[in-house]
Specification:
Layout lengths: L6 E5 L10 H14 L3 E4 L4 E2 L14 E3 L10 H13 L3 E6 L3 E2 L15 E2 L2 E2 L10 E2 L5 H16 L4 E4 L7 H11 L4 E4 L4 H9 L7 H4 L5 E3 L4 H8 L5 H8 L6 E3 L9 H4 L3 H12 L4 E5 L24 H16 L3
Parallel strand pairs: 1-2, 1-14, 2-5, 5-10, 10-11, 11-12, 12-13, 13-14
Antiparallel strand pairs: 3-4, 6-9, 7-8
């Protein structure tokens, strides 16, 4: 169970360093501990599909085998060592779980074709036209049983919780079963969907879970109920008052994203450092978990590409770093 004042640090292992391995994260854990990080959150670490792959490396969200580790990141022994060292440094570690879809060449394609969603007799997507992924049939009890076995495997290795990709379109019954199986100690964070996407799903008759429904089983949800409006406000597309209308309707515990692997770097939107610092303070004084995407603590502007080897170019900015460190200290003093 989260308290609400924890600090999450998101890592895209491939692009965290030139080496792109678990070993490089282990080397940096003491810095992250000193910064005040509570939870290390890893983008998917599994083997990536080859069929219809986008880019040279492919999206980590096009998974070929849920029980595997992508060889360029390291092996199981090294991953276990990362878990151990994260815990030794007083932090927790969570993984991104992508249970809405897989790569078209996932290892269960031939053995369990019934686990997938079909449209006009072909494996497909419920919405969109993403060629490098196909949707699972999450309403199939056997599919849910298989996905539960995935969670059991990684949890038994010492993983403290999960961030579920597009949790809103996964049946609520699955998350109910997860809570019943693992209890309240397992951290569950959901990537929910915004109002615009809800309206689109309504128009194409695709079911989804509301935030209120997800809160029955999740510790926290993303701030996607107002993040889009926030970026529009920063870009001068809507007024401050219109932005406040969206942020003030927020319910439940939120993950206070200002940027992540899907969205532009906040320092690339706010060019002035003093203004950037003020925005860090404004957002993170709100109720919710502070969220940093690797390098955000230095105000890094370049967002690593999701489909290629594009490592962060680490460049210190002590002004921003020391402010965030103080902001984290203040955040931890808050009680919700």
């Amino acid at each position: 169970m989260l308290k609400g004042n924890e600090i999450i640090y998101q890592i895209f292992v491939r692009n965290y360093s030139k080496e792109g391995t678990f070993a490089e994260i282990i080397k940096d854990l003491s810095r992250l501990k000193d910064l005040g990080i509570d939870i290390i959150y890893l983008l998917p670490i599994h083997e990536i599909g080859v069929m219809e792959r986008k880019g040279t490396y492919g999206s980590p969200y096009a998974i070929k085998d849920y029980f595997s580790i992508s060889k360029d990141l390291g092996d199981l022994i090294l991953f276990k060592e990362l878990i151990k060292q994260v815990h030794n440094n007083g932090m927790k570690i969570i993984m991104d779980m992508v249970f809405n879809h897989t790569s078209p060449d996932n290892v269960i394609i031939d053995t369990h074709p019934e686990y997938y969603f079909y449209k006009n007799g072909k494996r497909s997507n419920r919405v969109g036209d993403w060629t490098d992924i196909i949707d699972l049939d999450n309403f199939n009890p056997d599919t849910q049983k298989y996905l539960m076995s995935v969670l059991e495997y990684w949890t038994n290795l010492g993983i403290d919780g999960y961030r579920f990709d597009v949790a809103s379109v996964i049946p609520l019954s699955f998350f109910k079963s997860v809570r019943e199986r693992f209890g309240e100690s397992l951290i569950l964070i959901g990537e929910n969907i915004d109002q615009g996407f809800m309206e689109y799903l309504d128009s194409v008759n695709v079911p989804y879970c509301t935030d209120d429904e997800l809160y029955k089983y999740f510790d926290a949800l993303y701030n996607y109920n107002w993040m889009g409006e926030y970026i529009l406000y920063l870009r001068g597309k809507i007024s401050y008052d219109d932005f406040l209308k969206s942020i003030n309707t927020s319910k439940g515990l939120r993950v206070l994203c200002m940027e992540n692997h899907d969205n532009d770097r906040i320092a690339n939107i706010i060019k002035d450092e003093d203004k950037l610092i003020e925005e860090y303070k404004f957002i993170n004084n709100r109720k919710g978990l502070m969220f940093l995407y690797m390098g955000q603590e230095y105000g890094i502007k370049h967002k690593p590409d999701l489909f290629s080897k594009d490592p962060v170019i680490w460049k210190r900015n002590d002004k921003i770093y020391e402010f965030i460190k103080l902001l984290i200290k203040d955040k931890k003093s808050l009680k919700y």
